[in-house]
TrEMBL record:
The reaction(s) this protein catalyses: a long-chain fatty acid + ATP + CoA = a long-chain fatty acyl-CoA + AMP + diphosphate
GO molecular function: ATP binding; long-chain fatty acid-CoA ligase activity
Lineage: Eukaryota, Sar, Alveolata, Ciliophora, Postciliodesmatophora
Originating species: Blepharisma stoltei
Protein's name in the database: Long-chain-fatty-acid--CoA ligase
Keywords, comma-separated and alphabetical: ATP-binding, Fatty acid metabolism, Ligase, Lipid metabolism, Nucleotide-binding
Family: Belongs to the ATP-dependent AMP-binding enzyme family.
InterPro entries: AMP-binding_CS, AMP-dep_synth/lig_dom, ANL_N_sf, LC-FACS_euk
Length: 668
């Protein structure tokens, strides 16, 4: 049972002696965990506020926040940096301004809230730091969030102020004019505000001003520093299965997560630079932003368009790059296609280079080959600016083949991480020097984990591997200082997530691999369904297998419990199809993509490729997709994806219910 290629020289988890119970594995901890999981930060800080001030004292003149300059002709130029000292002064003044505007006023729960509603930009971080200096709880709002979700979050928190970009101001104005957002008094816009806009909000009983004006108001004041128990943020989950829930995250939750990562041994320094483009409304980017502060490193923002992020990477030249499997899969496919199209001497060099690097990788764990990196792979590394020395993937599972290939061609470690909003995202990691793949590693030094039986899915803590070694399987549960305090104003949902002993039940199924003790995610309690013959199917596992097809950009696998087989909605990869399929099938390259997708030959070729992959990936008979529907329009966070690119299955099923019914109505 299980799998993975973890090497025995890594020890990711050790059992706590005497902790095993019936129906559960022992409690496991990181070998570097201290008694009671109490690992302090190197600075001795017990709040994010203290951590920031300690970094400012050490690195006041070092560049911190970087934004690309807009040239007079509208093009983007070099990065312009604000130092740690400059950001500290500005955040303090904005904080004083927020206090003078009455936004530190506490509600019946003893909390004051300010929303931040924007894409990643320096004003986002400055507002967050300003709120922290005054003990205000920030509530991030995704810039792609639907208006009804914004309305719900504002109503539940009763927030009186929101800081936002001009683009999001339109949504606020519309909702207010329709009678919503009645708790809001002040809107703080990052860009200039017109007199007309001031008048429009004034008529609705609201005030609008710029962030710069707030800073001017707050020229004089005093900080109101948070304590470890102060609620730092309420982070609303992106809601893949229903309405968003507000995870309550304290200063201590964040500090203990940072401490646990530090003890894990992640190499980071003040010389590093990082590009911020994953949504700051998500806990993964929030914890990374604080990790950057901890080390006094540079934090540069993308220009706001993911499709043009290569231009930002070329200008910033980051040393650390964090992304999600969907983008890494895209890198993999594009690089593979480039290598496959090489001819003559170039093809020979690519083949020999890959072979040489693979040999070094598998025998000694070496990722750098000075000869082949210069001859073949330097251009690949330049895609990320040329200086990246460490990468991390998280948010969803990634194929081991993709991970291994990208490590070779980018010549740097790629860590795999796993966590949840409720554990401040940074929960389980692989070691930077581990060349294995197919697993997510072990817990940070401030978390306990255990695996709990899931009898309905045939996962038990007593399971053994194929060679007879103990390999417990079950639902991953977390306990420790990084675990959140609960869902805001949702005691029933909190009780469902955290049991009476403080264990957070993740809903994810994992196996603990023999030898290294690494965790390998194998299933999801909520993302499985039972077919008519009684077989349980894990949708994400099957989607990962099929996404290796060059034909497939996005996929939604579905199974009806009254049916005996799977179907799928496929969004093809338009670039690959136009480049590699149209000519061979006498289809004009300028043909509308919807017409190409309606071509029966394309469906035939996609199914043929999927069947080939099903064999290669050793999918079981009931896991093989039998019918597909081709959707020409990619899914985005505006419809079926969360801001972190996860498919919202509930919404996907609702959107394609007629298609699903039609596919099942047709003869097999």
């Amino acid at each position: 049972m299980g799998g993975g290629t973890s090497k025995p020289n890594f020890e990711y988890t050790v059992p706590v002696i005497g902790s095993e119970r019936p129906g559960e594995s022992p409690i496991y901890v990181n070998p570097k965990a201290k008694p009671y999981l109490s690992t302090p930060l190197p600075t001795g800080a017990v709040t994010l506020y203290e951590n920031f001030k300690a970094t400012v004292n050490r690195h006041a003149s070092k560049p911190y926040l970087g934004t690309r300059v807009k040239n007079p002709d509208g093009t983007l130029g070099a990065y312009r940096w604000k130092t740690y000292g400059e950001v500290s002064d500005l955040a303090a003044h904005v904080g004083y301004g927020l206090a003078s505007l009455g936004l530190t006023q506490k509600n019946e729960d003893g909390l004051s809230f300010v929303g931040i509603y924007s894409k990643n930009r320096e004003e986002w971080i400055i507002t967050d730091l300003a709120c922290m200096c005054q003990g205000i709880t920030t509530v991030p709002l995704y810039d792609t969030q639907q208006p009804d979700t914004i309305q719900y979050i504002v109503e539940q928190t009763g927030m009186q102020g929101i800081a936002c970009a001009a683009k999001q101001t339109e949504t606020i104005l519309k909702l207010r004019s329709e009678g919503g957002l009645q708790s809001l008094r002040i809107l703080i816009q990052f860009e200039e505000v017109t007199e007309q806009l001031k008048e429009s909000f004034g008529k609705l009983g609201m005030e609008i001003m710029t962030l710069a004006e707030v800073a001017v108001i707050g020229k004089v004041g005093e900080d109101q520093p948070p304590t470890p128990n102060t609620i730092y943020t309420i982070c609303y989950t992106s809601g893949t299965t229903g309405r968003s829930k507000g995870a309550v995250i304290t200063q201590q939750n964040m500090i203990s997560t940072l401490a646990g990562i530090i003890a894990f041994g992640i190499d980071f320094s003040s010389d590093d630079s990082y590009i911020s483009y994953l949504p700051l409304a998500h806990m993964l980017e929030r914890i990374i932003s604080q990790f950057v502060i901890l080390h006094g490193a540079q934090y540069g923002f993308y220009a706001g368009d993911v499709l043009k992020i290569r231009e930002d990477l070329a200008e910033l030249k980051p040393t650390v790059f964090v992304s999600v499997p969907r983008l890494f899969n895209r890198f993999h496919d594009l690089i593979q296609q480039q290598f496959a199209s090489a001819t003559g001497v170039k093809k020979m060099l690519v083949s020999r280079g890959l072979s040489a690097k693979m040999y070094g990788y598998e025998t000694t764990g070496t990722l750098i080959n000075s000869v082949w990196d210069k001859l073949v792979f330097s251009k690949v590394k330049n895609v990320l600016g040329g200086r990246v020395r460490l990468m991390l993937t998280g948010s969803a599972p990634i194929s081991g083949d993709v991970l291994k290939f990208l490590r070779l061609v980018f010549s740097c470690p790629i860590l795999e991480g796993y966590g949840q909003t409720e554990t401040c995202a940074g929960s389980v990691l692989t070691e930077p020097t581990d060349t294995g793949y197919g697993y997510v590693g072990g817990p940070i030094a401030t978390l306990e984990i255990k695996l709990v039986d899931v009898p309905d899915m045939n996962y038990f803590s007593t399971d053994v591997s194929e060679d007879g070694q103990r390999a417990p399987r079950g639902e991953v549960c977390f306990r420790g200082p990084p675990v959140f305090k609960g869902y805001y104003k949702s005691p029933e949902q909190t009780a469902e997530a955290i049991d009476e002993e403080g264990w957070l039940h993740s809903g994810d199924i994992a196996i603990r691999l023999p030898g290294s003790g690494a965790l390998k995610l194998i299933d999801r309690k909520k993302n499985f369904f039972k077919l008519a013959q009684g077989e349980y199917v894990a949708a994400e596992k099957i989607e990962i297998a099929y996404q290796k097809s060059f034909f497939i950009n996005q996929i939604f696998v579905y199974g009806d419990s009254f049916q005996s087989y799977l179907i799928a909605i496929i969004v093809p990869d338009e670039q690959y199809i136009r480049k590699s399929w149209t000519d061979a099938n006498q289809v004009g390259k300028d043909t509308p993509f919807a017409d190409i997708c309606a071509n029966p030959k394309l469906k035939e070729d996609i199914i043929k490729d999927m069947n080939k992959l099903a064999k290669e990936e050793k999918l079981l008979g009931f896991e093989v997709v039998k019918k597909i529907y081709i959707e020409p329009v990619p899914w985005t966070p505006e419809d079926l994806l969360t801001p972190t690119q996860k498919l919202m299955r509930f919404h996907a099923k609702n959107k394609y219910i007629d298609v699903i019914n039609q596919l099942y109505a047709e003869p097999l």
